Amino acid sequence: MTVRSPLRYAGWLGVALAAACAGQGSVEDRAAVQAALLFGTSASAAPAKACELLAPLTLEDLEGEETGSCPRLLPEQDLPESSAARGVEVFGKDAIVRLDRDTLFLARFEEGWRVTAAGCTANGDRPYDCVVKRG
Amino acid sequence: MRQALRPHALSLAFCVLLVLALIGQAFTGLAHYNEQATSSGLPVMSLVEYVTSSHFTVDVAENWQSEYLQFLLYILFTVWLLQKGSPESKELDKAGRESDEQQKVGAHARPDSPSWVRAGGWRLRLYSRSLGLTMGAFFALSWLAQLVAGRSAYNSEQLQSLQDPAGWREYATSPDFWNRTFQNWQSEFLAVASMVVLSIFLRERGSPESKPVGEPHGSTGIEG
Q: Which residues of B touch A133 (CB under 8 A)?
C-alpha cells in the first residue's frame, strides 16, 4: 500500500458525511417552514386547507376521536395562529418548526411535508404535549 | 484470466463478501426501517433514499470505525507487546521497532525495496509508520462519520417521538453514541484476544494465521 492510498478512499467518507447530512439542506428547511406556516395560518381561517396538510395518521386520529370531519373539528382544537417562523431543524424526513406561537412536528411524504403534530408545548425531558397528533 | 486473478484471490474474495454484505445490509435495513415507519404512520423510504440516509450511514460507519481501531491497535501493540506461544506475536526477543538490518532499511535496503525506503529521510520515516497512520486515519474519519450520521439518525427518531433534537455536544456525550461505540469495540477486542490465545493451542493446516500443525504450543511468532 502506498502513502497516497488513503486519498482514494477519502471520497467515500466524504459522500458518507454528505449523505448523513441529507435532508438538512436549506431547500428542505424552506419547504418544511412553508408547510408549517401554511398550516399555522389556516388552521382556524381555512381549516379545509390545513386539513390537507395533516399527515394521514394524524388526520385519521383527529377524525376518529370525535364525530365529524377534519374541517369542522380542527378549529375546535383552538390551535394558536402563527404568522412567522422562529426556527427549523430537519433531519432526514423529519422536521420540527418553531413558529412564533406554536411548535409543529412534520414528516416528508411523497406529496410533500405534512404535519404530524401541532399545538405542541415543551414538557421538559418528556415528549411535547401536543393538541393534535398521531397515535 | 483465472491465472491473472489467482495471486489476488484473497483480497478479491473479501471485497466480494464486503459488497454482498453491504447489499444485504441495505435491503434488510430498508425493510426494518419501513416496517417501523408504516406501523407509526410515517413516510417510508425507497432503496436509494435509505442508502443515502443517516440511518444506513451510521450503521455502516459504526462498524467500520471499530474495525479500523482494531487493526490500528493490533498493528501498534504487536510492535512492543508479546504473547508466548502465539503466531500473532513476534518472537520473545524481538519487542520494539527492530534494527535497520532486520527491517531492510538504510544501508540494508534492497534494490527492489519500495521507493520511499530507498529515498530515506522523512519519506522513510513516514513510510515506516504508514500502515498505522492509515488505519488511524480511517478510524478517525469513520468515527467522525458515525458521530455526524448518528446524530442525524438519532434526531430523526427524536422528532418522530415528539422530542427535541440533540445538539452536537449533547449527542457526542449521549448514551446512543457511546453505546453504539462500545458495543462495536467490545466485539473487535474479543476477536483479537480470541485469535491471539486460540492460535497458541489450535491449528489450521495451510493457513499463515496458524502455526504448523506439529509446532509446539510454546513456539512464538512461527506461522504455517
A: 162
